[in-house]
Write a structure and sequence with these properties.
The chain is mostly beta strands. Helix content is 9%, strand content 29%. The protein has one domain: SET domain (Beta-clip-like). The strands form four sheets. The protein has a three-stranded antiparallel β-sheet, with no helix packed on it. A three-stranded antiparallel β-sheet has the order 4-6-5, with helices on one face. The protein is globular.
């Protein structure tokens, strides 16, 4: 991977070599925080007008309940924090080229989140996943999406993964 700074969208990661589909890229690493702490942090990032890399993952468990995992890579994380949002269907020609998948073990109550390629990725392609559906206007500030996909919704999701 290669990371470069862009004027309009900050830091962006690109593939430095061809990547086959379904390849493990790395873990979405960051602070694991409670939902209350995630809400506080999102409000603070909104207020300060800074970007953030707080990922919210909801999983349907076998017993029918939904587990929510909040991983904040804003202050501590790895290269995954530089993966862009892209609108569209993961793995489609014009959609995000990465997907997230959770891994849950009996050893920990917390899910870990892996990043995988959703299709073949060419050298120089921007690495992206879908942060989630566009915001419905009830939550926080709306921020223009600059992903460039043909089916771009025009707005960035409020929190990653929500
Ligand atoms: Zn978009």
């Amino acid at each position: 991977m290669r990371v470069a700074h862009t004027d309009e969208r900050g830091w962006v990661a690109y593939a430095a070599e061809p990547l086959p589909a379904n390849k493990y890229i790395g873990e979405y690493a960051g602070d694991y925080v409670t939902s209350a702490e995630a809400g506080d942090r999102l409000a603070r990032y909104d207020r300060d007008g800074t970007g953030h890399a707080l990922l919210v993952v909801r999983e349907q468990l076998p017993d029918g309940t939904v587990a929510r995992t909040n991983i904040d890579a804003t202050m501590r994380g790895n290269v995954s924090r530089f993966f862009s949002h892209r609108c569209g269907e993961p793995g489609s020609d014009d959609g995000p080229n990465l997907e997230l998948s959770t891994v849950r073990s009996l050893a920990s109550p917390l899910s870990r989140v892996g990043v995988f390629t959703a299709r073949n990725v060419e050298v120089g392609e921007e690495l992206s996943f879908s942060y989630g559906p566009p915001p419905d206007g009830r939550l926080g500030q709306r921020q223009r999406c600059l992903c460039g996909a043909q089916g771009c919704s025009g707005w960035l999701p409020y929190a990653l993964g929500s």
